[in-house]
Amino acid sequence: MKPGTPTLETLSTIRADGSRKFVHPSDVHGPFTTWRRVVALILLVVYVALPWITVNGFPAVFLDVQQRRFHFFGLTLAAQDLWIGFFLVTGLALALFYVTSIFGRIWCGWTCPYTVFLEHLYRRVERWIDGDGPARRRLEDAPWSLSKISRRVFKHAVFIAISAVIAHVFLSYFVSIKSLYGMMRSSPAQHVEAFVIVVSLTGALYFSFSWFREQFCIILCPYGRMQSALTDDNSVVIGYDKKRGEPRGKVTAEKSAGDCVDCRRCVQVCPTGIDIRNGLQLECIGCAACVDACDDIMIKLKRPKGLVRYDSHNGLQGGRTRIIRPGTVFYTVVLLAWAAAFTVAITWISPLRASVVRMGGASFYVDNGVIRNQFQLRVINKRNNASTYRIELAGDVPPALQMTGVDQTITLPPMGEDLKTLVLTLPQPEYQRQFKFRVKVTDVARGDSMETRVMEYLGPDPQAAPAASLNARDFIR
Ligand code: SF4
Ligand code: SF4
User: Has residue 179 been placed in a domain?
Assistant: First the structure.
């Protein structure tokens, strides 16, 4: 084995003395690299464009934490609808597990925002300023000189600028582009919280992408830890065809040598510094750089491509890859069940919300022969335009029951909410026993309506001696 070749005994990013060994992957060209760049470019455009695209008067994705309203492509969720987030999170997790069981860590190598930023922004800038992998390794080992200092200062200034741009784009998802522009034109003293968030995020991104880098994927990201539990011998991952490649040797070696010429090109291009010839490892993010690198060597040697390729463990052993197997069938069934549940859950989201709770204090009062129960009624308009609502009582209630404290119609502004004291009065002779009721709120223009949960109307025991002015505490005695 050549000196410096990664093994399974040590981490490729830690030296024998425990210090960090920075990975400087060489540039690589090939179909997978080209397609990864296209995918990354599309994703970068999507990340930046989403807060600019308007659907139903709001940005396509706008997490308006201040107003507790969350807009997703025209669907507006109020804080009370956040239970739907359970479906979104579980759905994303299930989809990720499903894809991983079939294609390994394809998410990490192709679409994870961390990889997109690191490989297609920061490392591209680094290549542009410091050169390809060997040049960067030489520069790192070189003594400090004016040229090295100026390159370092320039590179880190660009890194900080990119981090600041990403932090601003991130903030625009929470405050909208218009507000962000207003903030950028005003003094930080007028929006201290947003300013602190952007500065902190810029610092965190700069630290992560300029220094921490692949360590995030290797040490911090929990998804990488689960890889071995989610894949099996039929999962299509990136692997080295040992049967074909070994025994590795130089091009000039005898004919009996395998196809691997031990050029280490697959190691040099790896962004996590591993040697895929040692088998699938936790550090492999499935970026396919080693596939393009090795195919390039094979083409030059006029040997068949695919010594390093997308294949399953079974496929690399010369067997057959089974896509349909118990694990993938299970994930398919669970995902279909999830999709059905999610569809039903979405239909449950009402553009109007109403709730009623009994007010603190006594459960009822009796004043001059009239029983009084007091409640708090909350009505929330989840539409993006003003709405007028009719308030009425529903259920088998005595005709003499009166509703006071709340107008029969209320108008709420877009995304507005109102809290009213609802007083229900009933002449004492009309009260036979406690009874149940609901409050029905109807959107006058559209006809949408909602009934609150069942509440109980309470009063004194009709057999008890009447009193001029009593409340529930008098009856407890
Ligand atoms: S690039 Fe291909 S030929 Fe070169 S060391 Fe890696 S597997 Fe062997
Ligand atoms: S081993 Fe290959 S696919 Fe895995 S991270 Fe390294 S270059 Fe990418």
Answer: no
Residue 173 lies in a domain: no
pTM of the model: 0.81
* Whether 364 and 465 share a structural domain: yes
Question: pLDDT of 217-265, one tens digit each?
Answer: 988 998 888 877 889 999 999 999 999 999 988 776 555 678 999 999 9
Ligand 1 lining (C-beta closer than 6 Å): 240, 245, 260-266, 277, 293-294, 297, 307-308
How much distance in Å is there from the Cα of 109 to the middle of ligand 2? 8
| Residue numbers of the domain that contains 133 | 1-142+214-349
* 358 plus 342 within the same structural domain: no
CA dihedral 211, 214, 215, 221 (to 10 degrees): 130
Count of residues in the chain: 477
Identify whether residues 257 and 333 lie together within a single domain.
yes
Question: Based on the domain organization, do 327 and 388 belong to the same domain?
Answer: no
Residue in the structure block whose two tokens are 């569809």: 343
- Ligand 2: residues with CB < 6 A are 238, 269-272, 274, 276, 284-290
CA of 346 to the centre of ligand 2 (A): 40
Last residue of a domain, one of 305, 322, 349: 349
Number of domains, the chain: 2
The number of helix segments (H) and strand segments (E) in the chain equals: 18, 18
Considering the domain architecture, whether residues 462 and 384 belong to the same structural domain is answered as: yes
Residue nearest to atom 5 of ligand 2 (CA): 284
Which residue has the CA at smallest separation from atom 4 of ligand 1? 263
- DSSP three-state, residue 379: strand
Same domain flag for 231 and 356: no
Residue 383 belongs to a domain with what CATH number?
A: 2.60.40.10
Average pLDDT, integer, range 139-143? 95
